[in-house]
Write a structure and sequence with these properties.
By secondary structure, the protein is α/β, with parallel strands linked by helices. Helices cover about 35% and strands about 15% of the residues. The chain has ten helices and ten strands. It has an eight-stranded parallel β-sheet with strand order 3-4-5-6-7-8-9-10. It has a two-stranded antiparallel ribbon with strand order 1-2. β1 and β2 form a beta hairpin. α7 packs across α8. The longest helix has 18 residues. The radius of gyration is 19 Å and the shape is globular. The chain starts with a strand and ends in a 19-residue tail after the last helix.
Length: about 325
């Protein structure tokens, strides 16, 4: 697989990475054996960028521990990214409802993540969400201390807006911004000129529309209780049918290129700029094989026009249920 450079500080990763959140949360039950097999198969196929977070284990470190154990034998060949900034003292059902990017907590999370991952340094340390109670300059300064101490290599932000990005970058260069981006979610494109100006790479999470673009989506009421798709607006009646129709039309185009709709969606993301790396997540080794081949799919200008005609502004339905939408500042 080809590599891409994220940001101007030298961070290099595979063109397609791997998002590990679903191995321990959000998409129904899983197990360590399945997760380990998925992570190792990704590496076998050339994936060198693995994304986890403190939050994905909700205070237990389970996701980081799983990732760390799975990549232990080839740790020096891969880039490990994790995140800080969510308050782990609140109940898990309040995910995203409480933040904590105080300097003392950042340092504590860094030490925990190093231990959970079983590594001597964290390659990319993201602020998971912007904390309005802590000036971003303090956050960036604390991560700078960790970089100077050799505990972190690169600084990242997630779901941050232009003002936050500029202020953070002035204290410690930001190597990468991570935000949801896919054929279903296009809003972040407004930040791309700023990222280009500052030399910041971009990591696209949920690049397959949280699984909808794989062509396997079911109506919301067919998912079990802990699955986020049960409440995701894109899966609700009215939006669901429109999104299914759009994915069917994308699949028809993909078939003309002997590709799947997932490969088409990932290839489309890679055309949006040389600074972009998507991180699809899956527990299925076969699905990983499918995703990786998306990096080899070439889309023509005519293909891109057809795709824009099908989904010119993104999918149908908001990113999150009302009242739980990140605000970029």
């Amino acid at each position: 697989m080809q590599n891409r450079t994220l940001g101007s500080q030298g961070l290099e990763t595979s063109a397609i990475g791997y998002g590990a959140m679903g191995l321990t949360m959000a998409y129904g039950p899983t197990d360590e054996g399945t997760g380990t097999a998925a992570l190792r198969r990704a590496h076998d196929l050339g994936v060198t960028f693995f994304d986890t977070a403190e939050m994905y284990g909700w205070g237990t470190g389970s996701n980081e521990i799983l990732v760390g154990r799975a990549v232990r034998d080839f740790r020096d060949d891969v880039v490990l990214a994790t995140k800080f900034g969510v308050d782990m003292s609140v109940p898990a059902e309040q995910i995203g409802g409480a933040l904590n990017s105080r300097p003392d907590n950042i340092r504590k999370v860094a030490e925990n993540s190093l231990r959970h991952l079983g590594v001597e340094h964290i390659d990319v340390f993201y602020q998971h969400r912007v904390d309005p109670e802590v000036p971003i300059e303090e956050v960036a300064g604390t991560v700078k201390e960790l970089i100077d101490a050799g505990k972190v290599k690169y600084f990242g932000l997630s779901e941050a807006g232009p003002e936050t990005i500029r202020k953070a970058h002035a204290v410690q260069p930001v190597s990468v911004l991570q935000t949801e981006y896919s054929l279903f979610e296009r809003d972040v494109e407004q930040l791309f000129p700023l990222l280009d100006e500052l030399g910041i790479g971009f990591v696209a999470y949920s690049p397959l529309g949280r699984g909808f673009i794989t062509g396997t989506a079911k109506p919301a009421d067919q998912y079990e209780g802990s699955d986020i798709r049960k409440v995701d607006p894109r899966w609700q009646p009215g939006n669901f049918e429109k999104n299914v129709e759009a994915v069917d039309r994308l699949a028809t185009l993909a078939a003309t290129k002997d590709a799947t709709v997932s490969q088409l969606a990932l290839a489309w993301l890679l055309t949006r700029g040389e600074h972009i790396v998507p991180i699809p997540g899956t527990r299925s080794p076969k699905r990983i094989e499918e995703n990786v081949r998306g990096a080899d799919l070439t889309l023509t200008d005519a293909d891109l026009r057809t795709i824009d005609g099908i989904l010119p502004h993104g999918g149908f339905g908001a990113r999150y249920a009302k009242g739980n939408v990140p605000t970029w500042t």
